């Protein structure tokens, strides 16, 4: 029996390198092996809350599933929204990086003291997480964090010219400037923040129950894709998914994938470990994204359909 699911990817800005597992599963035939057909759709606009981007399409049943931050599912639970579940890991660490005009092979976070960092992306939870990281290292008052201008190329040029010291953004956004030599990657924020389920596949609980066989098949296919990601180099991966990133240079794609592989940003398996979920919950409470007085139970928000080994 052929199963069918509709995956809403958000707007075009949401199709980032670190979300490539489902593209690999499609390209390499892993969905087909599971007798599963995935329809990829997009939203007209993006968003980083329960009200914006691709999540409303899932809530309204316009799509069966989407990919995004478990932080949205946690906040939705605290706000008593529709029952949503994170059911399959995708990104297992903070995908944001720091880049500078010159290579800094011995860079330490302490080197940010008295420096100017442009927050190019201006993405709420990423910014708050970076501020949390600065506090953890006693740098909260020692770093000048400048908001991005809204023009990424302009911000990168500012750093390249020495008018700011570092650019903060996802490697997906930074890779083109790094690949062409304008900037150099100096640090991944993955290890300093610890393992967290930064992104996962999300669906309504009732839809998962209604289409349980399809969701189990999807999870098995993503598990194959995540293993494939670990077993192949960045060029192999880039060649498989390049058609999904029109206008994105192959060299930049390779640069970005290699950086994410080295930083172990791609989830090693589809299971979302309780300890990592709880660490993320605590981090999100510390930065004010979640209400620390309200519960965010792992068992109510995370499920693991199908075979995940």
Automatic annotation (TrEMBL):
Give all residue intervals belonging to the SsuA/THI5-like domain: 21-232
Q: Which UniProt keywords apply?
A: Signal
Tell me the lineage of the source organism: Bacteria, Pseudomonadati, Pseudomonadota, Gammaproteobacteria, Enterobacterales
Give the family this protein belongs to, as stated in its UniProt record: Belongs to the bacterial solute-binding protein SsuA/TauA family.
Name listed for the protein in its UniProt record: ABC transporter substrate-binding protein
Q: Signal sequence span per UniProt?
A: none
Q: Which domain of life is it from?
A: Bacteria
What main location does UniProt list?
periplasm
Where does it localize?
A: Periplasm
Q: Which residues cross the membrane?
A: none
């Amino acid at each position: 029996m052929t199963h069918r699911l509709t995956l809403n990817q958000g707007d075009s800005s949401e199709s980032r390198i670190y979300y490539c597992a489902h593209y690999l599963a499609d390209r390499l035939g892993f969905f087909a092996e599971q007798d599963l057909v995935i329809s990829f759709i997009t939203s007209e606009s993006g968003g980083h809350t329960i009200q914006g981007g691709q999540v409303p399409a899932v809530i309204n049943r316009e799509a069966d599933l989407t990919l995004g931050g478990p932080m949205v599912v946690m906040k939705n639970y605290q706000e008593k929204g529709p029952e949503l579940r994170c059911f399959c890991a995708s990104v297992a660490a903070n995908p944001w990086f720091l880049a500078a005009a010159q290579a800094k092979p011995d860079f330490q976070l302490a080197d940010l003291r008295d420096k100017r960092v442009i927050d190019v992306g201006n993405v709420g939870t990423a910014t708050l997480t970076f501020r949390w990281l600065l506090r953890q290292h006693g740098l909260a008052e020692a770093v000048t964090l400048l908001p991005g201008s809204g023009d990424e190329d302009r911000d990168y040029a500012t750093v390249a010219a020495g008018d700011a010291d570092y650019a903060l953004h996802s490697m997906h956004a930074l890779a083109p400037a790094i690949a062409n030599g304008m900037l150099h990657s100096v640090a991944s924020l993955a290890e300093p923040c610890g393992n967290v389920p930064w992104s996962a596949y999300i669906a309504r609980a009732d839809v998962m129950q209604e289409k349980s066989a399809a969701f189990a098949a999807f999870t098995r296919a993503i598990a194959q894709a995540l293993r494939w990601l670990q077993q192949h180099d960045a060029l192999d991966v880039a060649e498989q998914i390049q058609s999904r990133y029109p206008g994105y240079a192959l060299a930049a794609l390779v640069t970005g994938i290699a950086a994410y592989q080295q930083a172990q940003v791609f989830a090693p398996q589809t299971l979302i470990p309780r300890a990592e979920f709880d660490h993320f919950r605590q981090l999100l409470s510390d930065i004010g994204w979640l209400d620390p007085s309200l519960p965010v139970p792992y068992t109510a928000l995370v499920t693991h359909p199908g075979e995940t080994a």
